[in-house]
Amino acid sequence: MHRIIIAPIIVIAILIAVPSAHAEDKWWPSKWGAEDTIGSFNQLGPGLTLKAAKLIKTGKTYNLGIETNSKTPGYAPRTFEISVVYPNQYNGSSLGDNQFSYYDDMMNGWMGVGSQIDGLGHAGTDGVFYNGLKGKDFAKIDGLQKMGVEDYPPIVARGVLLNMAKCMGKEMLSEGTPYTREDIIACEKKQGINVEQGDVVLFHSGWMSLLASDPDRFVKVQPGLGISGAEYLAEKDVIAVGADTSALEVIPFENPKVMFRVHQILLNYNGIYILENMDTRELAADNAYEFMFVLGPARITGAVQMIINPIAIR
Questions:
Q1: Preceding amide of 252 cis, omega within 30
Q2: Could you tell me which residues come within 8 angstroms of residue 122 by beta carbon, excluding any fewer than 6 positions away?
Q3: Which has the closest alpha carbon to 234: 271, 259, 185, 277?
Q4: What is the chain's pLDDT, residue by residue, as a tens digit (314 residues)?
Q5: How many angstroms separate the Cα of 170 from the Cα of each of 75, 133, 202, 222?
Q6: Three-class secondary structure of residue 303 per DSSP
Q7: What is the CATH number for 248?
Q8: Does residue 100 fall inside a structural domain?
Q9: If residue 91 lies in a helix (H) or strand (E), which one and from where to where?
Q10: Is residue 259 part of a domain?
Q11: Counting Cβ atoms within 10 Å, is residue 51 exposed (0-12), middle (13-18) or buried (19+)?
Q12: Is cis: bond before 178, omega within 30 of 0?
């Protein structure tokens, strides 16, 4: 009798606990196969490279990465610092008859500070990650056994900038402003550009202007990609999505009970990479909405994320 009474209660509780965002749906195996570990990067290769190369008209290049240092705001508890050392030369002596001197440096910090790429081992749903991989099986204290940065191919593709601030008629968007499916489509039309399969899509909100003046606000709240916008880009089959904000997605969240849903949609369910703290200011100033995007992250074995400085060329 007790089992008959308790079981329905448990079922009801589980159903109530499931968010409306379909977290219970099975998202694997990947369309690239049950053994795949690089997701959307399977699209990279000569085709995307040649397509991007045709966009180079002026030869102008743009740094998309910001400087990373001990003052760079990061999502807590992330920090970063370097130490410069003078190896084996502390007594003032140089090396050899030619008196050779040199400095080295050591880093103490997190890979998720500053401009960064989030890999597929970064976001999961109840411990299950891209392609159904369980965190307990591949994530070790000394590095990921699968989906580490070292496996990324050279990243060369068409880049698209969507200036959401300009499309919405503002210099800088307010915190909590989501980019919905409808917003993105409207901005594409205003700019006369279409997001296509294999693209790297970057959003400009003007939020980067707070990086130096109000770093606490910069990282704690922000405009950003909303749930329907992320679903739209996943349908477009892009390879990466980035923004001039520290989390890409809108904060406060659209639903305060649903946390980092955009990360799940892109990384976890669709194998689409995330680029954070992209400095889009110069691209926006030049109305550079289409360009070649180039990135070769440091191949540090087992890394979940990586500090990066992508280059845009137009």
A1: yes
A2: 263, 267, 274, 304, 305
A3: 271
A4: 444 433 333 333 333 333 434 545 799 999 999 999 999 999 999 999 999 999 999 999 999 999 999 999 998 899 999 999 988 887 778 888 999 999 999 999 999 999 999 999 999 999 999 999 999 999 999 999 999 999 999 999 999 999 999 999 999 999 999 999 999 999 999 999 999 999 999 999 999 999 999 999 999 999 999 999 999 999 999 999 999 999 999 999 999 999 999 999 999 999 999 999 999 999 999 999 999 999 999 999 999 999 999 999 99
A5: 26, 42, 17, 15
A6: coil
A7: 3.50.30.50
A8: no
A9: none
A10: yes
A11: middle
A12: no
Encoded amino acid at 87, one letter: P
Domain that holds residue 289: 23-76+111-313
Q: Which two tokens stand for residue 98?
A: 């030619």
Structural contact between residues 218 and 207, judged by C-beta atoms closer than 8 angstroms: yes
**3-class secondary structure for 71-82?**
CCCCCCCCCEEE
Q: Could you give the angle at which helices 181-191 and 227-236 cross, rounded to 10 degrees?
A: 60
* Residue 63 to residue 263: CA distance in whole angstroms: 24
Q: How far is CA 113 from CA 5, 123, 126, 214, in A?
A: 51, 16, 24, 17
Residue 293 counted as domain residue: yes
Domain count of the fold of the chain: 1
Integer Cα distance of 46 and 139 in angstroms: 32
Unique residue bearing structure tokens 């968010």: 19
User: C-alpha 218: how far from its chain's center?
Assistant: 16
In terms of C-beta density within 10 A (0-12 exposed, 13-18 middle, 19 or more buried), how is residue 268 classed?
A: buried
Judge whether 193 lies within some domain.
yes
Give the type of residue at 12: I
Distance CA 127, CA 58 (A): 46
Intra-chain end-to-end CA distance of the chain, in Å: 72
